[in-house]
Amino acid sequence: MQIFSRKYWTPRRLLTLVAGAIFAALIFFNVEVVVGAIKQLADTNLAIFLLVPSSFALSYLCIANYYHYFFKAFNKKTSIKQLYKLVFALNFVNQILPSGGLSGTTYFLYGVDKTRKKIPAGLATFSHFGRYIFAYISYFFVLAGAFLFLRFGSDSLTTKFLNEGFMLVGINFTGRTLITSLVVGSTILIFAVFYIISKESRVDKTVGSMGRVIDWVGRKFRSGKPIFGEQSIRRTTKDFHKSFQKLRSNRKHLLAPAAFMILSTTFEVLVVYFSYLAVGATINPGIIMVTFAVANVAGVISVIPGDVGVHETVMVVMLSLAGVEKEVALSGALLYRVLAKYLFTSIGFYYYNQILKPPKTAKST
């Protein structure tokens, strides 16, 4: 049979098989969680629940618009529709493969190349890198909003969270100290990133190392042949740095991409907030914002594919320590994470395969 032929198993088919197997395993080992979430839907407010997937979809649409306007700043025309599909596919890759975003970057380069818009690899890498920088910057606005919600909240839970806080590993954390710590940490990180990308040699050592790691892995499976090659990596890092220099000299081009990433993060927070509203929990949005930010930090530093279990655990622990009933904290986290992990990851898997398919060629007559 053809399926047992070595020629049949092209890189695309192998990638699809591996990704599909990991996705199936993820579902299999979390069947009880999925079933529990489905049963829980019977007790949710349907009108509010529908706002959860809607907010997810709008968040992804904002990310697609971010890429569109980012490339537009470099006079590169792109299709928002195609980028929207690519964002879904990227979500699947980042959720399934344990790479700290490395797999997502590689797949993004491939996906952008499939649009046939002649976007240099360095510019594509810089746009993808910029997405996460703008996402971190957007947390300044989220945390500012969180402080206002907490400051003017009058219920006992909000007052306790803001002023008294809770004990964790022998340290007393209040809403104020958490917000301050997150702002200071984000500021240091952003300054460190700008320090690195401000000089081409530093870009080569950091961004270039990603390509070299991929080449090292690729040589293990390609009879010693690299995927990119040193020349291509150096060209990419050079384009990356040039892209940064161009944006820095004309900062007005940053306004639209920044605005869309702020909107995307806002919709992400709304996903969590609506999830808790849907299960009947009325928690101050400020508490949700702070715990969500902390959970995201934990997810970033974890090496588990898609931070499976890490994000939910941190959210539940943080909310429980803040005084929210554990059952309520678990219900809301369960609802939005199941949607993220399974519904939207399934859609992403579909587009992942569509993008991996080779382009159709005209039949000769």
Describe this structure in words.
With 365 residues, the chain is mainly alpha-helical. Helices cover 75% and strands 2% of the residues. The protein has a two-stranded antiparallel sheet with strand order 1-2.
Integer count of domains: 1
As a whole number of angstroms, the C-alpha radius of gyration is 22 Å
Percent helix range: over 70%
Instruction: Provide a count of the helices.
Output: 15
Distance between the termini: 30 Å
Backbone structural class: mainly alpha
**SSE topology string:** HHHHHHHHEEHHHHHHH
Largest beta-sheet details: 2 strands, antiparallel
Overall shape = globular
Strands across the major sheet, in which order?
Answer: 1-2
Mean pLDDT: 77
Beta-strand content bin: under 5%
Number of strands: 2
Low-confidence stretches: 303-307
